[in-house]
Amino acid sequence: xxxxxxxxxxxxxxxKSFRLQPEQEMKYVPGQWFYVKLDENLKHHxxxxxxxxxxxxxxxxxxxxxxxxxxxxxxxxxGDSLEINGPFGSFVLDEKDTSPRxxxxxxxxxxxxxxxxxxxxxx
Length: 123
What we know:
- The protein contains 2 helices and 6 strands, in the order E-E-E-E-E-H-E-H.
- By secondary structure, it is of the alpha+beta class.
- It has one domain: Translation factors (Elongation Factor Tu (Ef-tu), domain 3).
- Strands 4-3-6-1-2-5 form a 6-stranded antiparallel beta sheet, covered by helices on one side.
- The chain is globular, with a radius of gyration of 14 Å.
C-alpha cells in the first residue's frame, strides 16, 4: 500500500517521526510494526509509534550514519510517498487488563510504549 508523508517531526538530535497518510485505512493495535519500503533494495521494519486514536500513521527512528536506508529516509520530505506493508506483531496492549503497568525501555525502544500509552490515555 502507498502512504504519503504528511509531516516529519524532529523529535531530538538524530531522531525523527514520520507521519503518514496511507491510501487506505490500516487497522492496527498499539505495539504492532510494519515494513517501510523506499525502493527495491531498501526495506526496513518499524514499530508504529502513533495510536489508532490519531488521524495519521507514524513511525519514529534514529539516524545512523552507516545505514544506507536511513540516509535515503532522511532525504524524504512531506509530500513524498512510501510503500508500507503490515501491520505485524503480537507485542500489543491488552485492553481487557486494567491493572497498573510499568513500561521500561531504552533509547528508540520507547516507540511501542508511546503508541500504547497514547491509546490508553485517549480511551
